[in-house]
Predict the 3D structure of the following.
Amino acid sequence: MAHLLNDRDLSFFLYELLDTEALLERERYAEHSREIFDATLQTARQLAEKYFAPHSAKGDANEPQFDGTTLTLIPETRVAWDAFADAGFLGAHWDADDGGLQMPEVVLRSAMAYFFAANVATASYPMLTIGAANLIRTFGDAAQKKRYLPAMRDGRCAGTMALTEPGQGSALGDIRTSAEPQADGTYRVRGQKMFISGGDQTITANIVHMVLARIKGAPSGVRGISLFIVPKFLVGEDGSPEQRNDVALAGLLHKMGWRNTTSTVLSFGERGGAVGYLLGEPNRGLAYMFQLMNEARIGVGLMAAAIAGRGYALSLEYARERPQGRLPSCRDPESPQVKLVEHADIRRLLLAQKAIAEGGLALCLIASALFEDQQTHPDAARRAEASLLLDVLTPVVKSWPSKYGCQANEMAIQVLGGSGYIREYPLEQLYRDQRLNPIHEGTEGIQAQDLLGRKVVLAGGAGYRAFREAVAVAVTAAGAHPELAALADAVAAGQENLDACTRDLTALLESQPDRALANATLYLDAFGRIVASWVWLRVACAACRGLAAEPAAADTAYYRGKVQAARYWIEWELPVTASQFALLRATNAVALDMRDAWF
Ligand SMILES: Cc1cc2nc3c(=O)[nH]c(=O)nc-3n(C[C@H](O)[C@H](O)[C@H](O)COP(=O)(O)OP(=O)(O)OC[C@H]3O[C@@H](n4cnc5c(N)ncnc54)[C@H](O)[C@@H]3O)c2cc1C
């Protein structure tokens, strides 16, 4: 049976591509060891295999039901949640003093990849809870932390992020949910939220909703949004649920994929007002929420890479087993059929999936390592540098694996032919699950506007320069391996084209923002292709280092596979940027100039 995730990939990325063992020199991780990191990954794999993967298809076929009074979910969801919580994963990143395991972010993200590959819908409940708890850990006061965090760590209480409303999605500045201050310091929250994942469920005794709302009289737009803790049940000082709050499940939404995650419409305050507690300062809610959104954006990239990886593993397994046809050079109709994997076109489909899935995973782990450096690197300058680079990369980390993950899952179906299209095989479910990733946590179009309109010009372009520097370092390192010289030259040339295009478009941003941003999604795609080329060049370098040690046959094949995937991406996919940059530098206005009446 195909693996959920290639264990060798995780150890290669953690210890040969990234220097994760160096984290052990940091004070926060001094008590840990590589054995502990590896045991954490092994536990994640075992739990994912035992409690998450087996009900992925069942959760898809039996989506949550709500009859107006009672909500039902398949019982395996709760068993999986309990196993996840009991193993300590909900608080694994937290400090030991707070009851956590004090694990590095990059190790935890690697562990999460197993759960996402096994069953992304069930794994969403813990992912959202970890993010919501992190908001309270960072911005909550002592009483709020005491009240909510222990229950969110040990699995009695889950968390959600409640931003979207029926009337607004991408435009968060238009949020209408209101919050009215009360004499006792609490607020009464009123309004409706839509698409809230895990907004109600039958897994935990309580749910903490992290709700964006506007305090009465606050400025309009994004500057007037605050963040509130609104629990389903009001809790006592020790966090135990007491009285029901005025938050009601108005209905469930029925989705294409990701079905075992409840997608809810929530009504706040239909019976007078839901009790809400302000987190941090008024009107800073969106800035706070960006912490969770940035975390979730790396999480979405990781989900996309994991789902693409699962499709790749399953289609590779099928291609190695199914005999079909003969090679063009074979003229003997009596000769045995070859396995699908022998056909060059099937190899192309598999190689492209490998480049996307493994490249996406490597990119997300690089981003997680940057997050780690941003938080715990002992050198302040390195912390700042990691922060700048992560900032500019985040839209790509979210959107490149999501967009290309859809293509990878489509190719996985193609490898199976007719069997890929039928529900007896899991490929079509993976494809449906994957399709959410370019939509939630900021659509692809919104990530594109963020990248070109904000991130590349932020701090005078410092983040962009940090990326250029990182590419230059990878190109120089690749120069040490003659086999990679042509790939390094191609990446360097691609980066120069990106520089020129970025200069042109950012110059136009001030005077003609509509025109400059009209093709932002094309820019994001071209930028993403360069980022993926940078990642693959680094991976190929690490593989060449491995090959130089003349390893055993299995490892030699493993490293050769990495170099070949790097060649695929840089020789086949990077050159596409030439025509993209030509359109972008000409500030092609064909879409901008189109008129509604002409459609
Ligand atoms: C399964 C699922 C789970 C979700 N979970 C959550 C959750 O837990 N919490 C939560 O708060 N939300 C959640 N969402 C909501 C999700 O974040 C939104 O659907 C998303 O942000 C897009 O908003 P929208 O659906 O209103 O689309 P719209 O904002 O109406 O966008 C529609 C299209 O227009 C484009 N567009 C919009 N504005 C612009 C612009 N200014 N410039 C160019 N193009 C633009 C978009 O890119 C998109 O292609 C979830 C959604 C789904 C489907």
Remarks:
- The mean pLDDT is 97.
- Residues 285-321 form the longest helix (37 residues).
- Residues 160-164, 169-170, 195-197, 255, 258, 263, 436, 439-440, 443, 445-446, 449 surround flavin-adenine dinucleotide (CB under 6 Å).
